[in-house]
């Protein structure tokens, strides 16, 4: 090889190195801290180590991309659930909106309590009372009409404590986690006890989760042709409750694969975490968000009406689930 | 600009053209005939024209990738459904397998008919009789156990006419269509009247459709911890019938978006095609596979027990759905 061609080759190699470095730079940089709102404590380490293990080709714990399913509870895991589930706030506002068409509600429980904002009486009406309110406020219209009602409400409603739209009260560390998992070939699935059609209209914009990756509770719908237009009409009847032992059922029904990672925050997520992590396979990740931050959000666990964390908190150390201490482990709760 | 730099630029352009041509060549070639098992008749033209319209950036009918949902019936649309639905053949074989544990079946209908292969009496037992057979043969085990039973059966069972495994009796033109749509950014979803857990175990391998993109009829399951192992147990109770008006309901429940293309072959697909194509949007594709080929497969429509095509065939010209004439439009039915 001549000195000239040698020189030319070196020059070419140098150029190529720069090009390669430039091409790799943004991704290398992003890999430096894919979870900037997480403190460098145990939960962050557990996430990073798990993702490394299951994505590393040739590792004994490698999981092929199509099987990388991660499931997330919504209320209290991805967004705020106090002082009451957002969907309940929506339902109570709907009662007020619909009240003029129902003058009888002024004297009938649980509607009287809903109209008067009497949460104590409302809570005392129990599951039956709440169900009655949900059915009256969530049905009797087409699916498209309901989507519009939800979207309109979210655009104006404000959280009572933070005075911000509910869709801004999503946990920034969890939003980063969703992105990080997707960047590593995971499908991120929401498995909510809340209504699937209450979450779908905004999940894609806020979480990057498309409608087909949202599982939730649902009411029955009926196909109807209305003047040559096909519609799905929402009937006042529960179809499926996607909570507790219902969560693995919903996951199997709609996904048909067992997840390899599950994130929850309450006893409603216990069975989902069991289903995900206790299958005998090597690498599985179970995590619980523990609300410990009175100042920046709320602190609650065993004694709360919404998002009780009791049995699952006891199960965590035995099952090897990581408990996220919001106060200690999260640098930031919400996006500024 | 000097004559030399002009010349250099032309030379560079020439090189670039060759590089670009080489880079594009394989894809251009594939685009030449993405549907080689289809004859050059109207249905193929309709598919190609539809895909071009919805994928062409800037076209008034452009559809963003996440909204490119195509739904496919399974029995009779993607694979053979005569002389009876494959899942029914499976159920009848299961009755024979389970018979030793049920000596009483020898004298009780519809089991007696099933054991004797007396299809006429079996059919006469109606929906109630068939349901009884489905529940007995499809439940009373975990979801994992059922998956194994299905997989084992498919590996040995042979179709009575073609003497081939059922999973080889999938329509090659439709397999090409599934791939072609996916290559153009579509999600291809199976929406089967058959059991979702009967289709999922093989849909990925045979159709390239992952479990989470299979919707179907289902039976109820129950979450149970068995010696520290979480399982889903199949109960003898129907959960959902994904047929006729149930198909749009199932699509909305699991996908949450309205499809832009739908493929079926029977009256069971009528509402799915209506839901897909009659939404008032510009570009929608509805297609019906019409079984017209006695020689290479079967010919049937209005008068058949399995896959009756009657109302939907009448609706097609009015709704603008394309009818695929298997004999005339398909070069090949199965893979050799």
From TrEMBL, chains A, B:
PANTHER family: PHOSPHATASE RV3661-RELATED, PHOSPHOSERINE PHOSPHATASE. Keywords: Hydrolase, Magnesium, Metal-binding, Signal. This is Putative exported acid phosphatase. The keyword Heme does not apply. InterPro entries: HAD-like_SerB, HAD-like_sf, HAD_sf. GO terms for molecular function: hydrolase activity; metal ion binding. Residues 1-30 form the signal peptide. Gene3D superfamilies: HAD superfamily/HAD-like. Pfam families: HAD. It comes from Rhizobium mesoamericanum STM3625. Transmembrane segments: none annotated. It comes from the Bacteria.
